[in-house]
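Shall we go through a protein fold together, starting from nothing but its sequence? Please make up or recall a protein chain and show it to me in full. Go ahead whenever you are ready, and we will take it from there.
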Amino acid sequence: MAPRPPPIHRLCVRILLVSFVAAHRLVPPCSGSFYDFPFPAAGKRHDYRDALAKSILFFEGQRSGRLPPGQRASWRGDSGVSDGAAAGVDLEGGYYDAGDNVKFGFPMAFTTTMLAWSVIEFGDSMPRDERRHAAAAVRWATDYLLKTLAHPGVIFLQDHDCWERPEDMDTERTVYNVSAGRPGSDIAGETAAALAAASMVFRDDDPGYAETLLASARKAFEYADTYKGAYSDDPDLRAGGCPFYCDFNGYQDELLWGAAWLRRASKDDTFLQYIQNNGKTLGAEDSSNEFGWDNKHAGLNVLVSKEFIEGKVLSLQSYKEFADNFICTLIPESSSPHITYTPGGMLYKPGGSNMQHVTSISFLLLTYAKYLSKSSHTVNCGDISIGPVTLQRQAKRLIIC
């Protein structure tokens, strides 16, 4: 069975800065072949700043737990304040996944990673207030993720399914966890990535909190690498998480993804060596034109290639090549087999919730363009060479579509 279509708050995180950045960078208008279809009529402009503000505000509407005094979504009230009580732990907080009040650690951690990555790469382009609200959205998630790691040898991932107002919930809140006996390298690796990425968001404004996040990320990664396995291979966890949140793609990408973010956040050569030594066995070169909560390979390659592009770690050249291969599948003029587009120019993949692919891939296009723009590197797609302007243009076209 196909994975559950991602609820809207995971889509918002991936579109969060894409639209704003595309609109506020100097991106030439589309022209030529594939790009010859209409932009909005003259005088009609997309209000990207307003879209950005609403995307961040949406997170406040998804908050679980006791709401803070500065809560702007005033129509929401406290909910889920006793989450975790059934297992004798405190799991208050975090975000609901959708209207059924699920809190599930794996996709929530990916949401956190992507939101943090957005702030890291493009936060300087945001209005000051929105940058502050985005950091608060990251912290609401990381405060919860820290709780899931608070008990040695166990990582909690809560699940529940109840279609009602969260303020009115009176049914049992089921609690699941992974441990040495039933490993979950996927959830632990993604949690490590989320906490490591978030540590960079708070490094300047709250260095103590940033250090706590980074230390917890190391702890989560150590668990992921020591007790290898996918959480959905366990019968009890499979019953609670599947068919919607099974790990369809395996846990190997989350190990590399977690190590890559720990390398980025800590500059620790231990994680660089991990990436170099385990890339092949953990599937870094796996070809895929997908990037989302279950498949991190494309994002991993874009992230890791940054050090090679900057000329700092030449041994990571293969990750640049893997990232290029991914990018070439997105360029219609490329001779590589590429992803399908609708007649109007929208990236299309079969299955539910197509926008999850559009938004996440747009983000990678803009991020890779940013890395390339600070170097002489391009993307080699057979007989054509692609530069950062083309990647920016493609991302903007996808957003406007």
In short: Residues 169 and 334 are 52 Å apart (CA to CA). The mean pLDDT is 85. The two ends are 29 Å apart (CA to CA). The chain has 14 helices and six strands.
